[in-house]
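hey
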């Protein structure tokens, strides 16, 4: 189940505090594919709560195929997008990977698909 869906379900069952505590107790939290699935306004606020709770408490790896310039598209609200990124980027090391997906490499090699054009991305 995607993270936002899990948090939304926990909120609806009045268990959001328990869920946030669960995600904050680990030394490392990996959130993959941020921005792949659209996040509604309520989901963005729950995501902000999670990021705020983890801030300065544990390591976070966040992956996305979208750049910082698309933050408003990902999070919807420019103010909350800025607040989320401020917390994420404050003590971060950013690695920008440019290149084609490793998942497609073998299919390109054997000629099943053409090599896709490289797009700038943030991972």
């Amino acid at each position: 189940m995607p993270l936002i869906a899990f948090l939304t379900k926990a909120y609806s069952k009045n268990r959001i505090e328990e869920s946030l505590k669960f995600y904050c107790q680990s030394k490392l939290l990996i959130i993959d594919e941020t921005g792949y699935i659209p996040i509604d306004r309520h989901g963005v606020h729950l995501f902000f709560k999670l990021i705020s709770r983890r801030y300065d408490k544990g390591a976070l790896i966040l992956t996305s195929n979208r750049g910082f310039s698309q933050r408003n598209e990902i999070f919807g609200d420019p103010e909350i997008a800025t607040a989320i990124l401020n917390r994420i980027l404050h003590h971060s090391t950013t690695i920008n990977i440019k290149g084609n997906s490793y998942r497609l490499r073998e299919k390109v090699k054997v000629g099943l698909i053409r090599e896709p054009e490289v797009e700038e991305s943030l991972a």
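The domain at 3-92 is CATH 3.40.50.300 (Rossmann fold). The chain has a mean pLDDT of 86.
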